[in-house]
From TrEMBL:
Record's keyword terms, sorted: Gluconate utilization, NADP, Oxidoreductase, Pentose shunt
Organism lineage string: Bacteria, Bacillati, Actinomycetota, Actinomycetes, Kitasatosporales
The organism of origin for this protein: Kitasatospora paranensis
GO molecular function: phosphogluconate dehydrogenase (decarboxylating) activity
Reaction it catalyzes: 6-phospho-D-gluconate + NADP(+) = D-ribulose 5-phosphate + CO2 + NADPH
Top class in the EC scheme: oxidoreductase
Pfam families: 6PGD, NAD_binding_2
EC code(s) of this entry: 1.1.1.44
Protein name in the entry: 6-phosphogluconate dehydrogenase, decarboxylating
Length: 477
């Protein structure tokens, strides 16, 4: 019998996805540009299920039952276009082509339209969870037509992570919706990692704790409301000792964070959509700053505060305060990310259900966390809510955390420990809360130098003041 699903591109991700399908009993056709990888897969893991190794895309497409379901898992960008161009002449109307790579959602929109015009379904799908997730159950975020999900969805839901009996996979929305949501997922991941890193930095450089002690603090936190994959691995990384030197692992790693670009895409897109995702932006900038070795070296002599440690009385409750600040900042970062999903959904007409996104992120992906259940519940209560911060649970959490949060941010400022993530989250919170923002003054400045006009609180219309002629009434424009 013909294969039920095909995977082309058998590097770590593709190979593990193919094995995941096979382990779930599906007949899988496999293909890779360099045939050695295909052979290696079948030699090593052929016993796990029913694989059909193919040496060309012709053989690959011929090995699949109709309508064909095939997953492209190659390097994002031009390689994906190359594979699509080669595949399309070999396909028939109704076939479903999945791109499981990290494509930009605008590329996915372009590809989906091109394939739709040829009678093919194109599914841009986010796949999160890395190598291990791909094998054992990722979080899957497929976009594309309803029809494509009818053909493909059951297979994807089968191989996805499962939480409380529900698959971490759902139809996100048309064309680029899946890759858009995956992009924002990665942006949130950047923010979450930055906040955790700041918590560590504070415990170490204000609280005076050593990495193994901080690992213990994170383990404890992982038993509570912060329980998540990222907190868990943070404890493991902090507890790890470098074999060569016997020093804490974090002390032998160069402190320059790298990035592949999905965080940057999230922020670029947020700027286009006009969504203030300051937490994600600070996280991307913090990574970028860490990589500016020359700038940092040249700035090492900048004066800092004279006080550099907490006194012991304050340090006793400091870890608790940091936990509160971390939780509150995390709520803000997620609220911003979900706001971006809603803005993207409105802009492109995707009708994304934010609660469903929280549901499929509960397992398989890097940001999986107990916390996502709260977000799911918040959107189940009100799908159109303007911000997660207004949900009763989060409101209570922020109310309980805010004094500690303020203490942590001011302590960090006093001691000179950089906390861009905590600080921007608090500033966002206070900006939303503010009854009046200084934006009125900015409007005045704009009108002064550029006659950009302003609106008034007491009358409709646009106004311009003749700044050079004091005393003259403003004009309505
Ligand atoms: P890579 O991103 O390293 O890509 C390697 C694969 O692309 C190989 O199979 C390679 O074939 C193939 N390829 C390239 Br490169 N150029 C090609 C071309 N012009 N035509 C045909 N095939 C080509 O693999 P990966 O790390 O497994 O990631 C696959 C996708 O999944 C990427 O888009 C990635 O962004 C995404 N992703 C990765 C992760 C992760 O944790 N790694 C997580 C989530 C998503 P060859 O063997 O012949 O060179």
């Amino acid at each position: 019998p013909l294969a039920q699903i095909g995977v082309t591109g058998l590097a770590v991700m593709g190979r593990n996805l193919a094995r995941n399908f096979a382990r779930h009993g599906y007949r899988v056709a496999v293909h890779n540009r360099t045939e050695a990888r295909t052979r290696a897969l079948v030699d090593e893991f052929g016993g796990e299920g029913d694989f059909t190794a193919t040496a060309s895309l012709e053989e690959f497409t011929a090995a699949l039952e109709r309508p064909r379901r095939l997953v492209i898992m190659v390097k994002a960008g031009q390689p994906t276009d190359d594979v699509i161009d080669e595949l399309v002449p070999l396909l028939d109307e109704g076939d479903v082509v999945v791109d499981g790579g990290n494509a930009h959602f605008l590329d996915t929109r372009r590809r989906e339209q091109a394939l739709r015009e040829r009678g093919l379904h194109f599914v841009g799908s986010g796949v999160s969870g890395g190598e291990q997730g791909a094998l054992e159950g990722p979080s899957i975020m497929p976009g594309g037509s309803e029809e494509s999900y009818r053909v493909l969805g059951p297979l994807l839901e089968d191989i996805a992570a499962q939480v409380d009996g529900r698959p971490c996979c759902t139809h996100v929305g048309p064309d680029g919706a899946g890759h858009f949501v995956k992009m924002v997922h990665n942006g949130i991941e950047y923010a979450d990692m930055q906040l955790i890193a700041e918590a560590y930095d504070l415990l170490r450089h204000a609280g005076g704790l050593q990495p193994p002690e901080i690992a213990a603090v994170f383990r404890e936190w992982n038993g509570g409301r912060l329980e998540s994959y990222l907190i868990g691995i943070t404890a493991d990384v902090l507890a790890h000792t470098d074999a060569a030197t016997g020093r804490p692992f974090v002390d032998v790693v160069l402190d320059r964070a790298e990035q592949k670009g999905t965080g940057r895409w999230t922020v670029q897109t947020a700027l286009e959509l006009g969504v203030p995702v300051s937490g994600i932006a600070e996280a991307v900038f913090a990574r970028s700053l860490s990589g500016h070795a020359e700038l940092r070296k040249a700035s090492a002599g900048l004066p800092g505060p004279t006080e550099t440690w907490l006194d012991s009385a304050a340090s006793d409750r400091f870890a608790e305060d940091v936990e509160q600040a971390l939780y509150a900042s995390k709520i803000v970062a997620y609220a911003q990310g979900f706001q971006q999903i809603q803005a993207g959904s409105d802009e492109y007409g995707w009708r994304i259900d934010p609660g469903a996104m929280a549901t499929i992120w509960r397992g398989g992906c890097i940001i999986r966390a107990r916390f996502l259940d709260r977000i799911r519940a918040a959107y189940e209560g009100d799908r159109e809510r303007p911000s997660l911060l207004t949900d009763e649970h989060f409101l209570q959490a922020l109310a309980g955390a805010q004094s500690a949060w303020r203490r942590v941010v001011s302590t960090a400022a006093q001691l000179g420990v950089p906390t861009p993530g905590f600080a921007t989250a608090l500033a966002y919170y206070d900006s939303l809360r503010a009854r009046v923002l200084p934006a009125a003054l900015i409007q005045g400045q704009r009108d002064f130098f550029g006659a950009h006009t302003y609106r008034r609180i007491d009358r409709d219309g646009s106004f311009h003041t003749r700044w050079e002629e004091p005393g003259r009434p403003e004009e309505e424009r």
